[in-house]
Every structure is written in C-alpha cells, then in structure tokens.
Design goal:
Blueprint lengths: L4 E5 L3 H13 L3 E5 L2 H10 L4 E5 L6 H12 L3 E6 L4 H9 L4 E4 L4 H12 L14 E3 L2 E4 L4 E4 L2 E2 L4 H11 L6 E2 H8 L8 H15 L9 E4 L3 E4 L4
Parallel strand pairs: 1-2, 1-3, 3-4, 4-5
Antiparallel strand pairs: 6-7, 7-8, 8-9, 10-12, 11-12
Amino acid sequence: MSTGRILVIDDDPQIRRVMKTTLTTRGYEVGDARTGEEGLAKLRSETYDLVLLDMNMPGIGGIETCRLIRSGSEIAIVMLTVSNTEKDKVDALDAGADDYVTKPFSTPELLARIRATLRRLPQPPDHADLKPLVAQGVEIDLSARQVTVRRHTSHLTAKEFDLLSYLLARPNKTIAHRELLQAVWGPDYGDELEYLRVFVNRLRKKIEPDPSKPQFLLTDAWAGYRFHLPQ
C-alpha cells in the first residue's frame, strides 16, 4: 500500500470523486478542491505531499495556480490536461510541474506517475564523504541537500535536486538523456527530452552565477548533459 497525502484540484466533480476513491483504496490520504483559489487556500492550511492539478479550470487556471504553488513551496506537482502538445507540456513544466499526464488516462498510468514523482533518488554511499562544491560563489552540499548562491539559499524541488545530484556525482562526464530520465524519474521514462530541457533551465536559473552563460550545467549537443567540475 502507498502512503502520502494528495490534493486533487479539478473543477470536474466526477474526476475528483473517481480519483479520491482510487487513491484512497491505494492507501493515500486525499483532499480535493474545485478551483485553483480553493486549492491554494487548502495548501496554506493543510499539509500535502503531492498535488494533482488540472490545467484547464475556471478562475486563475492550472498554469497560474502551478506558478503560485511553486513560488512558495517545493511540493510535488503533477499536471492533468486533455492536450498532449509539446507546447502544453513545456508550459506545465516551466510553471513548476514535476510531471504531466494526459486525459483520459488509465489508473495504472496515473499511479505510476504519482509514484515516479514521489520517488527519491537513492544517494550513493559515498555522498556523505563528498565535500561540498564551492566555486564562484556557489556552494552545493549533497549530503545536506542544500544549495547556496552568493550566500543566499537557493530552494530546489526534490526532482531538481535529484537531477543535480546525479550529474554532480559524475563530474565532467556526459550523461545520456535516457540515463538521466530513468535515473531521476524512473524506468518507464526515456523519451521525454522536454523534461530535461526545462529542468536543466530551471536549475541553471537557481545555481549558475549567470544562467545565460552556464559554467556548471553544460549541454553536449545530441548526447546529454554534464556537470563541469572546476579544477
């Protein structure tokens, strides 16, 4: 049985009922909200591990709700939408979502996406022995899961930190797209290159002294990404 608290934000009452029943029988505690505004209010007063957020809702809408949630929280977010275009996926990820599910979806698919979003990348045994990276005003401490840029703490979501951690633990080595996706999101992933593009851009904004001229998170065209460890 799974455990955790999930907030479903969707204006369709039937979807809320189905998801509440489905998730509750799998061991999750489930809350629900009809609008983005109601969902934001619940998140201010209650504690959840993950948000299932419909993209198309009346009021402030799913994308703006996602941005508002992410501006003050590192909670896991899975966006739900009827559209499967790359633009909509990128919009959802850019707004701060960790994953994206297209309606209609099967129960096994939804549960797999929830598990993938909530999963945490196991730390290698030698993480505790790694000294914090300190370079050019940036300090990354893997064992403490903490990033500081010019003495200001940079708040990373769990998925952002897992991606950074996987790259940093393999410095100066190009990691293929598929390897990164399967290591950080899970074995069912591998072709979602837009996930990596968006998440690397998000990380660059949080750890690079100048995100437009990255010095740490480098792209190796058509191959993958690598973390450049200054000598």
